[in-house]
């Protein structure tokens, strides 16, 4: 295991901003994870696990610790019945390559999560979700190294406490577990309507009435290409903010001024309001702030057009969030993790 010193993290995150990592290494096995964590503890250094860098933003001072890139690979079918398949996948595998493989196997469950950048191990951290699916719906369990007890553990879906764009891994148990493998349960049955509105529109436009994982994947990839900038060409983090979750009384208040406010019902009786809509209403769509462009096709996405520092990004973010707070009395939350 090679440990590199003073590595510019902007080359490893899709927003392409921020300072250096004091140390950086790739891990390919559980033994390597244990060795590097012991070393970090002995030197009293913090660590951070980096996947594809699409949901991490880096301060200008960089990270005074060890950045660990998880490269644990492998896929194994654990069990199969006439209706289901359980697959265990290494945390370092590319998420979309895994999705493609499951779609090629005609399995249903994660096809709407096509085209999401990043790794398999990062998917549960923020409970990736898109076009009507959340990864939490198909995760059975995951294996992790618990840096607190120094043991290998298996966490059930319930243990992970998944909710909208959240789990224990970015909340109460941040930097405790290092995810090594994720086990998914996928289905042999075809995808069932109702589909996400944009997906159904695509299917209708293409007169598709036979639903397979492949047609849903194709629809999602086409919609994403149209709405989301390619991070390889235009540095961005996908949605920079989470959608807002508001209470019943807040919605009643807001509807007096904004009768057309779009909302989605949450299972707990609250409402999700698209932050892209709020940002658009506040007049930011397409605008350039401190070198950061508010995407003209989806105001939830911030593109680093000419920003030179994390400070530029933070100024743009704070300006947008401040105006949303003053206009709608809603506090919006950033989606990427910050180191
Ligand atoms: N909207 C606007 N203006 C905008 C953007 C959106 O009015 O600039 C409105 C749309 O008209 C629509 C609603 O907001 O009524 C929702 O828009 P959309 O379906 O495009 O989805 P989103 O809420 O912007 C979320 C996820 C995306 C995911 C899509 C599709 C979050 C934070 N984002 O975006 O995830 O792909 O739904 O399911 O939940 C990501 O997390 O990086 C990401 C791209």
UniProtKB/TrEMBL annotation:
Q: Where is the active site?
A: 165, 239, 335
Instruction: Tell me which UniProt keywords the record has, alphabetically.
Output: Cell cycle, Cell division, Cell shape, Cell wall biogenesis/degradation, Cytoplasm, FAD, Flavoprotein, NADP, Oxidoreductase, Peptidoglycan synthesis
GO CC, any one term: cytosol
Q: Which residues form a coiled coil?
A: none
Q: Does the keyword Protein biosynthesis apply?
A: no
Task: Please provide an example of a Pfam family that matches this protein in its UniProt record.
Answer: FAD_binding_4
As for subcellular location, the record says:
Cytoplasm
Tell me which residues make up the FAD-binding PCMH-type domain.
Answer: 15-189
The reaction(s) catalysed by this protein are:
UDP-N-acetyl-alpha-D-muramate + NADP(+) = UDP-N-acetyl-3-O-(1-carboxyvinyl)-alpha-D-glucosamine + NADPH + H(+)
Q: What is its main location?
A: cytoplasm
Q: In which pathway does it act?
A: Cell wall biogenesis; peptidoglycan biosynthesis
Stored SUPFAM superfamilies = FAD-binding/transporter-associated domain-like, Uridine diphospho-N-Acetylenolpyruvylglucosamine reductase, MurB, C-terminal domain
**In UniProt terms, what function does this protein have?**
Cell wall formation.
Q: Which NCBIfam families match?
A: murB, PRK00046.1, PRK13903.1
- HAMAP family attached here? MurB (MF_00037)
Protein name, per record? UDP-N-acetylenolpyruvoylglucosamine reductase
What organism is this sequence from? Candidatus Saccharimonas aalborgensis
The record's gene field reads murB
